[in-house]
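Appendix B, Record 12. Input sequence as logged:
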Amino acid sequence: KMKKIYFLTVLCLFVGNVTFSIDVKLKITYKDQPVVGHTVSVMLGDAKLGDGVTDDGGEVTVSVSSLPVKDIDLKGEKKCEGASKSWSVSGFVRLDGNNYAHLKMEDPINQMAEASGGFMSVDMLVASYGLLCSGAASSSSNGSSNQTDNASTSTDADKDAEDSEPMMTPEESLQARKTVLENKIVTSKKKIDQKKEKLSKPGISDADKKTLEFEIKELELEQALDQCKLEQTNLMIEKNGVLNKEERTRFNAREDQLKNELKALKESQKSSGIENSDPQQSTTEQGSEDKKVVTEDKEVKEEKNGGMEEPGKAEADRIQAILDADSLDVSAYVDFDVNKLSMMTEEELQKSKTKCTTDSNNKTLLLRAKGRWMEENERIKLENEIASCDKVLLLIEAETARREAIRKAEKKNN
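Logged structural output:
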């Protein structure tokens, strides 16, 4: 009897020390190509449950001691030609009944690129994450199996995207977008205050009053849209760039609502025959807002002087002054022919303005972030590209004002 009790005691102690592991099986691909040689960690929030290295087929089995839920987060890392690449995915992986999941990396990448508002391209993210690169896999922290990394097959375009170091990391891009949105909101508030001040002045005509009321409402809606985008960006920064489905749906619904309200307002303004007192007004684009106000004031002064000057002459002179101001050949740095400025359609001007505004903002942020580490010739080239974009924006602004002055004069004469 004593032997039996002893045997049972030893058996209980033995069983109590046995750890039963659970195998989580994952397959990770990008555009149907396996993501090879990445050390993948299974995460629950900030807690790491285990890790392993993806094989030639992008598959990995990670042993974990417990698995309380089926929705898991993943982190990956890999060394690519001496550079460390890493990624994090949250809200995209749900295990099935066999604890298996297939993560298609294009899903979180496309969502993140779209949510960035143009600051992060798909190619930039693919390069930053090291999805297509060759090189040794990162070593696992808990000694999990090392597997030989064979580079996955990719197209020449994919290789070019991978070999080129992205201008900004995803984290830097989100911070850059945050800065731009914050500046836009401040600019919108400034313009709203200026128009409200005009609205409060005595002797304002009913027509001007109605125009200003429309413009203020338009600016307020655009400001609300930028505020929504800023809140989304802040949350993405907080959550390592990826939002869950509920969060994405909430922000998209809010943006769609504001865009529809803005569209309805503009249609109402158009049907009412109300002209925008500031043809340059659009806080959804970046640009020199203070210069726009100066342009508007100049037009008002011309009208008060009885239109004695030839319509648009002041703006034409301003265009020539901009061209004569320096010897910078903008065509060497941006795709814009200044000689065809007066022949461009309104749509072509707007497209060029949008492109130059985006390029100028992105390159200015890049210069601030990495300028001190650039080679001198590389930094000078970037500075010239920024100056060229800014010069083109001034030319477009003056040309738009010239055309608007002519339209006003023709309408007044008719």
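Residues 138-167, 279-308 have pLDDT under 50 and may be disordered.
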